[in-house]
Specification:
By secondary structure, the protein is of the alpha+beta class. The protein is about 40% helix and about 25% strand. Strands 3-2-1-4-5 form a five-stranded antiparallel β-sheet. Strand 2 and strand 3 form a beta hairpin.
């Protein structure tokens, strides 16, 4: 059985097994019967939906090691060990909103059960680095643009005009994540342009 087949709702075998994943929580929603619907971006299987019978769940954006029971067509979380979480109290409103937009992009644009190991690794590196960043907004925008390009959803026509913008478009998915996280500060006008590029790209990808 191919690993991707394990998540297909039309796969003809009913099975039950336990497995462990490394995952970033990208969405969660409380359900009336006391369960929490938790959408995970996992290193091993991409985006999967799980169910958690607890009153609380780690913050979205946290990096976790999660034990899951696959029972029929549903994934039930048995245990969560949080590896890393963000100290939100030190973040500005704009920084929090841009971070949430990245998670929303992953939630909306990642296909279910499709491996995107490099995007997962980029996100994990960014999450461990972001607290030390001199410009969280820049780090978040560049990460967001990198993800959109890797998902073939970045609008190229938003990066015309200035050499720096064209350079970003061409190299954003080719440079190492470490070099992007530690790149020189971009001026506010370019940040504004990048923000517009992100929003236009997300909108185009969803319609």
């Amino acid at each position: 059985v191919c690993s991707s087949d394990l998540w297909r709702s039309d796969y003809p075998i009913i099975f039950r097994f336990l497995f462990r994943v490394h995952a970033i929580i990208i969405h969660k929603q409380k359900i009336r019967d006391g369960q929490i619907r938790v959408v995970l971006f996992t290193k091993e299987f991409g985006k999967i939906t799980t169910w958690y019978k607890k009153q609380t769940c780690p913050w979205i954006g946290s990096v976790n090691e999660i034990h899951i029971e696959r029972n029929g067509w549903q994934n039930h979380i048995k245990n969560i060990e949080t590896i890393h979480t963000i100290s939100w109290e030190r973040w500005k409103y704009e920084e929090v909103m841009e971070f949430l937009r990245i998670l929303q992009t992953l939630y909306e644009l990642l296909p279910d059960s499709s491996e995107h190991i490099t995007i997962y690794e980029d996100m994990e590196k960014m999450l461990f680095f972001i607290e030390e960043s001199n410009s969280k907004v820049q780090t978040l925008f560049l990460t967001h643009i990198r993800i959109l390009k890797k998902l073939w959803s970045l609008k190229e026509d938003m990066f015309t005009g200035e050499n720096i913008l064209r350079y970003i478009y061409i190299h954003i998915d080719k440079k190492s994540m470490e070099s992007i996280l530690t790149s020189n500060t971009i001026n506010l006008w370019h940040i504004h342009t990048l923000k517009k590029a992100v929003e236009e790209s997300r909108y185009s990808a969803l319609i």
